[in-house]
Fold these 4 entries.
Entry 1:
Amino acid sequence: MRPLSLRVRVADLEAHEVEARLTGSGLALDFGALRARVRADQASLASAIRKVYREYPDQPSRGFFEVNASVERVPGIRRVIRSQVKFVVDGEAPFAPFPADTHLPLLEWGLNWCIANNCNQFLLLHAGAVERGGRAVLLPAQPGSGKSTLTAALTCSGFRLLSDEFGVVNLDNGMLLPLVRPIALKNESIDVIREFARGAPIGPTFPKTRKGTVAHLAPDQFSVDHRGVPAQPRAIVFPKYVAGKPVSLEAVPPARAFVKLAGNAFNYETLGPAAFDAVRTVVHGSQCFRLRYGDLVDAISVVARLLGQ
Amino acid sequence: MPDAHKSGLDTAHLLLCVLSDASTVRALTEDDWNVLIQVARSARLLGVLGARVEAGQMMPIVPPAVRAQLQSEQAAMAYRTRMVWWELDRLARTLGPLRVPIVLLKGAAYLIQGLRCAQLRSLSDVDVLVPRDRLSEVEEALLSHGWEAKDLEPYDDRYYRQWSHELPPFRYGGGFLELDVHHALLPPLGRIRPDPTTLFGHAVAIPDTPFRTLAPEDQVLHAALHLLQDSDCTNRLREIVDIDALIQEFSQRAGFWDELLEHAAEHGAGRPLWYALRFARRLLQTQVPEQIQHRLDAYVPRLIVRWFMDVLVSTAVVPPDPDRGYPRAARVASLLLLWRSVWLRFPPRLFLVHSITKAIPRLRSQAARPQPM
Amino acid sequence: MEEGLRVARFDSEAVVFNPVSWQTHLLNDTAVRALEALMSGPQSLADVVTAVLGDVTHPDHRVEMIQSLLAELEALGLVETTLATCASS
């Protein structure tokens, strides 16, 4: 028996309790800007979810959820021979199945897909975002940027995680809304973060995904607890990881930053003028830079300085 | 309000209730909304749901997070509609000079007529009807003005050109909208073959454009035929919502019902019309005047057939249950209705060839669905 | 200048959204000044040249540059030539 507590987290639940929610009416996950109700029928996925969503409050699976999704075993022969799982949302499976041993990456990517396609009440930038001292920095995603690794390292260094994948912008006021989710680390990044932050809560490793080896960093308690607190964007930093390179920070003309942010967003085109206005607000209020770095510690201290610390 | 978690039919019932009468949302809990939004989205009726809630002035009582979701869909549908207008504009400039009669079909037609049912309606393609003898001219014009033909397997390409009533789909410069160019409403060897010349004869010109639309009666017939002759009826509530909306809009016009029956008789489409109105009445309480229903009953099928169709269509037509997916009964019904639609498309000797050859490409295409990243 | 054009000015550059074409454009300094010259209402070519290049006599090639810039802006639907503005200076 557990004493009654107002704030039970997923980590406080027994494994069988998490499984019961996932196979029953679902596990409620409150990311901040939106909520998801997740179901799953494999014990190993339940265990992985329990690890990477450990700090999330155990909310009842009642009420309205922006995303209702599940990861289910594919029936028939695919249950036995090279077993597969499928991502199901709104009663249907929009993608081809994945091998059963890549279930958590499938869930995470599937949730991303749902958010990117169905949440046009926000402007969704393709960027990481962290906050400290009431000021937020956007880290737009580009190939070779090491954005996720940098975002992960920042959150392990006292920065509040707003999001790794989606920079969620409130269309009315240009503020960044948290969408706190586990950070997907790929290949070498996994060990880099393990080294950088000993004891960082990294979930199970999935070696055979389409993007190589993937593992997820669980968001910390502080970030999860403050998922309802928007942040003012003050800096836009385009990161570029170059091994061995000393850190350098270069100003980017704001109009260029605008165009890059807009070009990279998930739904800029769809939202048209509303998106233009939101990006204008974000860029007007921010300093824009390109950051080249070979060492995470240097990059982090540069970002800290930018945010006035 | 029924406990909406019971079955596929119940969740569809919730959606149909709200679509028929927006004030039903007064009684909805957040749990109900959660189910309703999922069902509407999967039935591609989320935009229409939002439009009806707004038209019924019920938006203020919708919970904020739900309202945000409806507004999100509104933004998405507004964008799609804009894309369709651009496509129509480009089509007008490309095909206009050819002076070929172009009849817009379905969604694009509803849009250009400014029909209420076009509001926030989900569109993923533009369908046009052109005379068969002008097909290659049209195809050439499209290909040389920025449209690309979809890359198809040779069997599928041959299938389209030989047996189908439409060309393989086009896409303008990598956009997501498909352009389907038809030369008939239904496959040319099918059991019902509405005569394109008659359709063109009754078509209505849209001023200041090179486009026409089918006569209102023919639009209703087309929707009925499309559902009953050309589809497996699976998750097709949307088509029935269209039929109901078209009837509501057009039945105000003098002579509409008489013309509808006349055209149905002319095109041999009485039976599909009978079915379409039956399901529309059952699901959305579409009003059909008694004397019209009486005349329509001339097309009533044999009891056993009627019973089969009732069971199969009502089982297949509803969207999947959000948590449970399609029940086995629905999957079976869909398969039977799919065979029915293929059967109706071909004379018997071709049916078997197509069935076998098509089974293999279908299995292959299932493996090629989109990836989440 | 197109009605309803949204302009975000940043130092010497600007980003512009055209609600008719739904396109977003990045404009350099010269283009911005040309567009701003037209914000208060239709201008003659001479006025635009003055606003952008300054109030001195300009060699032909520079005037031509402004002319072709305006043609580009027109192609993007951001500005429109009316008969009055066609008058040469």
Note: Residues 103-118 of chain A form the longest helix (16 residues).
Entry 2:
Amino acid sequence: MSTTGHAMDGQTHDRHAHEGHQDHHHEHDEAHGSRKGYWIGFALSVVLTAIPFWLVMTMTLSKPLTAFIIMAFAAVQMLVHIVFFLHMNRRAEGGWSIMALLFTVVIIGIALSGSLWVMYHMNTNMMPMQAASDME
Amino acid sequence: MSATAHKLDPDVFHLAEEPHHPEGSSTMLGFWMYLMSDCLIFAMLFATYGVLGTSYAGGPGPKELFELPLVALNTAMLLFSSITYGFAMLNMTEGKRGATQGWLAITALFGLAFLCIEMYEFTHLIHEGAGPQRSAFLSSFFVLVGTHGLHVTFGLIWLVVLMVQVQMKGLITANKRRLMCLSLFWHFLDLIWIGVFTFVYLMGMLR
């Protein structure tokens, strides 16, 4: 009994010291980023925003190519925001943040592509109202 | 030494008491979970817009309604507010209360400018007879962009409340934690806006 009590005390003590150190380290290195990091993120965002707007406003390229480029730029800019502004990395909160993010991305992917796919086919396969009444 | 020996003991597989967590240590993860669920709300609204976005019901489409220079200005406002909030956070880490408050105030002004431009756009659309009841396209447009605008509105209220808190209590641990939560919220809204201006406005103009 006394051995257990002693062991527990030792453990609690150990963990406290460890946690305190980790928190300190964590707060300064990862949670806020650096001035340089914010500027890099900002510069990349400006470029990744300006080019799509310019492409659509001037219509320099064909429509499908423009659509592909602006979608790709949006995806890249979202990543830039996640890394440089939200300071997401594999270590934040012991890896749980990125797990939650990846899970959310998967759900969004399924929900978005599923909705668009199903509803597009519903639209194309549905008989127009006029044709439906003609068949009777 | 005895602690190590006990940890490895196969008979002891749970702790006699719950591990002690310092106050607020799980707040950031919890807030991140909230943001992810908020992300799902926006995903559903984007899906709705994706499905209904071409149903004009004989009414005006994106090309007749959207003004890209105004959207570009709005995007710039939100992006500027993102980096100024970043500077506020950096000053907070260094413990400079005055600079933190200053950058927060600038962030609030950019946020307010964004909201004013959006309100102008909405009233302009409604005035032209392109309100949410005009077509499925406009309904889904107003719900999606309006929900984002509502988030920015509440973010702005939160920002002002935190500025008052920091003024009264200083940069205490609790206030730092609150500012970090709002930081995630604010940058997250900018992230959603990337989706809005790409899928709604730019893709709309390509139709």
Note: Helices of chain A lie at 2-29, 35-58, 63-85, 96-125, 129-134.
Entry 3:
Amino acid sequence: MIEMIRVSKWFGPFQVLKDVDLSVARGEKVVVCGPSGSGKSTLIRLVNRLEEHQSGKVIVDGVELTDDVKKIDAVRREVGMVFQSFNLFPHLTVLENLTLAPIWVRRVAKKEAEETAMHFLARVRIPEQAHKYPSQLSGGQQQRVAIARALCMRPKLMLFDEPTSALDPEMIKEVLDVMVELAREGMTMIVVTHEMGFARTVADRVVFMDDGRIVEAAPPAQFFDAPKTDRAKLFLSQVLGH
Amino acid sequence: MANLEERRIASGFGFLGREAGFEIGETAFMRYNASDTYLRALVVGLTNTLAVALVGVVVATILGTAIGLSRLSRNFLLRNAAAAYVEFMRNVPLLVQLFFWYAVITEGMPGPREALSPLPGVFISNRGIFFPSLFSGVPELQGFNFVGGTALTPEFAALLTGLATYTAAFIAEIVRAGVLAVHRGQTEAAHALGLSRAQTTRLVVLPQALRVIIPPLTSQYLNLTKNSSLAVAIGYPDLVSIANTTMNQTGQAIEGIAVIMAVYLTISLSISAFMNWYNAHVAFK
Amino acid sequence: MRWARENLFGGWLSTIFTLLLLLLLWKAIPPFIDWAFLDAVWQPDPKVCRASEGACWGFIAEKHRFILFGTYPYDLHWRPAAATVLLIGLWIFSAIPLFWRWWLTLVWLAGLMAIGILMWGGVFGMPYVENERWGGLILTLLLTTFGLAIAFPLSILLALGRRSDMPIIRALCVGYIELIRGVPLISLLFMASVMLPLFLPSGVTIDKLLRAQIAMILFAAAYLAEVVRGGLQAIPKGQYDAAHALALPFWRRTGLIILPQALRISVPPLMNTFIAFFKDTSLVLIIGLFDLLSTIKIALNEPAWNGFGVEAYVFASLVYFVFCFSMSRYSRRLEHQR
């Protein structure tokens, strides 16, 4: 599904990704973790070309990502993304947020788009909020709307960039529950998160990054119980210690 | 006080009923001749001011929005051409620009017989700009000048061009700031959903930018209206111009100035009131 | 080449713009260069100018003394020239942060005195020149300098007054600011020109330059007051609380704690207002003062030179542009340094 081959990226003089190789198969759920500044967000943002790589190859669903705008648009239609700060459109209602892209990108008729939207709103368990504005919802509800918005485009792959980091603790569970359900239904997912419980439950593979490189990648049981590298051990002790 | 009596200057507004005795070069909406009262002359001045202000606001907004968005373009030429435009327009006084446009039209343009015609039916000459209109047909050259169609006198054309191009530069900056004020995350989310750049700008960025743009934008509209008072320097008969003539003829300077200030104050207070209403009801929380 | 593809032809719309702009440049720049440089006439001879297709810079060559110095006596032109250089020098000197010390005020006082002596004369053997004969660039600069110097402290008082708890003061300040900002500058110039003399006892006259200067000061004070008010509002409320808690009297705490912060925040919009004010001095033309724009316009009135308005106003634009652009560049540097 996704192939990253010797990918490097620089922000000016600073190299944020160093010769990263990563493969994600269809239906696989990959959790990416690591200390801040390790490049994990940048890595997943390469998948839908929100960031550009300077060397190496990124291939998504058979399409190689280059400067070709048509290819980028084609990839973005099939890849859904959920952001840490939700990024809902504040001037539109929840329903309008969900139907915007299907109507204008997939050229779906308004009625059909609204039916799809209501379906996914029900899936994330807030159908009654359809006509409210994002500012009227709690953080957890907003993030669930964001997930529904991405799902309305019926993507083949979902990217999550620290989806619960901006939420108050009592709302993290409702969002994670939705993500777990999504995973169980077979969606291909790449999730950048600090929620290790989620990783243990759902991930097929945990990828640990530090300083721009993938340091260790293993199934969760192995990663959490028997980390191989010192850096992974240090990270786990810091994150799980408390 | 002795001064005032000596010069009979503040003798009240009675003079408004007297016959004006001067011609007015052009009238936007009303009919007027020299035997009408001063009051009517002033009202004509006011309508002239509003005419140039309204058209100016529309042209300036369209031009300013285009230039403001151009400043954000990825096209190197477009971006820098727009930036150069803004820098130049904002660093040269409006009065200089008005004189320049007036000189361009009266000295630089050919006579009606050799008028420039960029589009069929549109003629640009040193006697003015003529174009076809619904009410008066297509302009035709008869003798030494054009007949028919709508005519913009050199004074109106120069004032309009100067005001619109000058204000557009300021509006461009406001539009640019408004668009930049929209969070980057919004464009990212839109792109992530597959919306094109044009769609993102239209559906996500501009609506949010508008809320930031409208307050300073109305301020610029007010500036344009106040700036139209420079018409007196190039001979366009706006309110200040006519009030000036009136003051010179009747000697009633205080009343004249009071009229000018009262009218402009009313306009600006109305715009302020609108702004307050807008902020209270529409601008989002 | 990759740069060109991305930045000039990055899509069909972008390509259209690039082509349109290149076409525009191609159509506009060569004729402009012909007009402004190649065919232009530099000799101060109106006949040659009229015979030529190019720009008549001879007009500037012929009239430049009048344009720069107005009706100041011809053989005494070294005085306004020196005064202009001195004033510009003072501005540049004050722009360097290194010199922002207490003695800058003294430097200014000395400089202004020197300028006054140069312009008026009457001492040191220099003949007296009444200010009705002053004109040109020095007049524009003087109007700007004195206008801002006096309006600025006034605006601080107005801004503080507008936020005052005393209803009368507040009402007066609000009324003043809204009135001045709601009317065009022209009406204020008219008002000063016509009405000021009326309020003085008969026999006392107030000269035209002073009337215009007063109008400009009143105008600037209102606009600057709004900028300062913005700065006062932008300071975190905690600063006001802390200042109150220190139990300082009003002027102390305002002067030592509140104002420095407010003014620091306000530097960009303040500079913008200064630049706008410099441009606004051109309006004194309308009430018959001979600022830089006015002298250019009057120079055109001479029958021999009639009809070269385009050249004249291009020249005027250039002069103003140089001043204003330098000021706005400086303002941006200030912003970045902070």
Note: Residues 169-184 of chain A form the longest helix (16 residues).
Entry 4:
Amino acid sequence: MPLPSWWRAVLPEDWEEGGFGLYLHWPFCQSKCPYCDFNSHVSANIDQDRWAQAYLGEIDRIGALTAGRVLRSVFFGGGTPSLMEPALVDVILRKVRATWAWANDIEITLEANPTSVEAGRFAGFRAAGVNRVSMGVQALNDADLRALGRRHSLAEARAAFDVARGLFDRVSFDLIYARQDQTPAQWERELREALAMAVDHLSLYQLTIEEGTAFGDRFAVGKLHGLPDEDRAADMYLRTQEITAAAGMPGYEVSNHAKPGQESRHNLIYWRYGDYAGIGPGAHGRLTVGGQRMATEAHRAPAAWLEQVEQAGHGESLREPVDGQAQLTEMVMMGLRLHEGIDLARLGRLADRSGHDIYSNINGLRDIGMVDTDGGRLRLTEQGRPVLNAVLRRLLPD
Amino acid sequence: MTDLDHIRNFSIVAHIDHGKSTLADRLIQETGTVKDRDMKEQMLDSMDIERERGITIKANTVRIDYVADNGEAYVLNLIDTPGHVDFAYEVSRSMRAVEGSLLVVDSTQGVEAQTLANVYHALDADHEIVPVLNKIDLPASECDRIAAQIEDVIGIDASQALRVSAKTGEGIRATLEAIVHRLPAPRGDRDAPLKAMLVDSWYDAYLGVVVMIRVMDGVVRKGDRIRMMQTDALYGIDTLAVLKPQMVPIPELGPGEIGVFTASIKQVRDTRVGDTITHEKKGCAVALPGFKPAQPVVFCGLFPVDANQFEDLREAIDKLALNDASFSSEMETSAALGFGFRCGFLGLLHLEVIRDRLEREYDIDLITTAPSVVYHLFMKDGTVRDLHNPADMPDLTLVDHVEEPRIKATILVPDEYLGDVLKLCQDRRGVQLDLTYAGQRAMAVYDLPLNEVVFDFYDRLKSVTKGYASFDYAMTGYQEDNLVKMSVLVNDEPVDALSMMVHRDRAEMRGRAMVEKLKDLIPRHMFKIPIQAAIGSKVIARETLSALRKDVTAKCYGGDATRKRKLLDKQKAGKKKMRQFGKVEIPQEAFISALKMDS
């Protein structure tokens, strides 16, 4: 039964369970990596002033829709945002500060490539207010860095990482594993090295072959060899969980590991299905406006986005309501990635509102040991975690 | 009305792809029966499926007006018959309505199995046969060699064989002349009481049932009251027409003529092919011999993928049955597949054609279960039962013995593949009856159990001979053998739609092949799944499908939510193409692919 409107005003809105964050997309890279399916473009001439105006205009627009909210995080993603001028980051963050109240522990992350050029900007980013960097190191040997199409050497990456560690309290880096011809023993050695380097956070992704990437094309014609089969990939995944946990950096999400308390606050907003504004080419957002959760998408092509912001006053290519079932799907799909799982009461409210019974599915999955519901939360078990997609297909209503 | 001397009735017999329909098209075109601008490729194949597959399923007829070189006008009635063995009954009954045949042989290929089967039907019907060597425009054409082969293999004189290219039109005129001068005119008595043979009937959405007849004696006119002698039903003729190939009304049909009538008949089942039609009053005394109705020999289950389409399927089957009395159906319930129909067909091609029509013309996605033949169960209590569905096999203690249908198969194959063909036949429990050579081709004749043939024999034959073998068969009768029901258990639950009758000696092999196939066809689940084949409670083969170990998206952030959600929705939609069986999801195609054997 729908709640009377006065009731709704009293109850917190669903997004508040996850909080509110801001994502800013910088779409440019120096080169395109063969595994990457993100919205990134290689361009020589970028008028950073013009881009600054566009970002500021978008922040104003989103600010008006979300007045009074407390901002928990800002995330500069890309592309390669470490190619932005520190002055541009500074002007954006000043605008953000003027637009929303900041949480005391606001997290401001910038994604960076570990090259010497970019390391030279780190001090400027810090001065602008960035308090966390996430570095795309990807591999800890030169041959594999080249195979992954990275422009930096291992030595360069280590040097850039040291600069970052000296400047920022919180530093994360990414590695890709289950790479071509990588043995479990090789990965284990590399992972131990990584843990020795790590500050407080690590993202460890198994190589995924995405359509529309150079790797995807090679895979489609059978020219990508040496990828692990399902059993080996599963073994490597489980071993990774054991080693990181023993080293005090346990997994808290499918591919993310942190010292307790140092989880990525920004990404937690996604996984806890909070609200997030997406600004910049191709950026996606989820925003609750007038009690209705909306999905937004911006134009992917940088030039088109820029022009539309300048001419139409917004960069969105799509804004549509996310219906009850889609919200349920997204909440479960995102929330089960976290070891903490999903609050069953919250899940129940959404399921009831969209008229779906997922309890019998939950029970079926619990019977075969894939999920547990202890402490009022729906969580994957150790056994369920590596097969999340199969759990989702079984769990969600048709 | 045309006098007997100026009528010629004929059919064309050929192996598939030897150019029968193209030749028919040229005859129609050459005589101006159909204006060039109305001409479609393969004029007589009226169904989409017929035109697409290049096969003829229903007999079709056209009346051709032809002025011969001698200046006289003739009426040529062509009955274009199906070439495929499944429709052999149509061939043989259509042949009874005409006096001669053109035997079309591809001059680049030579005599094939269907050539033989069909020419025997023509000889059975006492036809005069004119050999036609087709495709003489092709460089590989070898008319002299093929003519000699016709004399060798079939034993008819081919010295006067016509040399034709139906594609270019060369030799078409000579063919028309040969029809007039080498085929006999029909005989009949105009003054005798009406005696006409019911050659075929079909349902037309506008006209109701259309009945095709060949008049033997007497004259039939529009408005006449007629009697069907076998069914003893009375009708008044509403319209009388000839086919050119569309219906053209005609006031009367006399002896030797072929035409159609309508008489407010509701369904095809009310007409019996081979029946004798006479006048209600002053009818003829002795009926024509008639034909045995065609019996379905292959059965399978048809189930809608979407259970909500069951009623649509029922309606579609009823509509198809209106026009095809040889196709039978009864409701069936399967634990695995829900509600559907057990349908009987004349053979595998018939099955495929009907299934294609249901899917295409009625837009119903179907799951087809493994084809099965009709077994005779001799029960201990002395009764005999027909078994159409292996799932219905009664407890073995009640059955004394089982008989299965057998066929005589004729296979023509180039020498080099003969070894593989013999091995295939041997593996399928075949008994060799004959093996002869004609040039570089061998002709193997085998006695085979039909149940070894219905599933994938033809596919296997094509693959071991790279498509160079031709195959034809005729049912020969029933024979006792050691047959048992093999059931399949997935996750310890029997899957009724996968149970099958097998020979005891072949059971282990079939069972092993089946569980191995299923292991590949069923996707990994979150738990391990035992897959077993069993006879009664005895497990004869077992495989274990190991549990899914890894299926998780490595990266999923805010920008991925929409795309990953849509991907998940798509995967869930794909799940609907699976059948839930206990806790296990089995893909639809598994029900048919699991039974295909690789050796």
Note: The domain at 4-182 of chain B is CATH 3.40.50.300 (Rossmann fold).
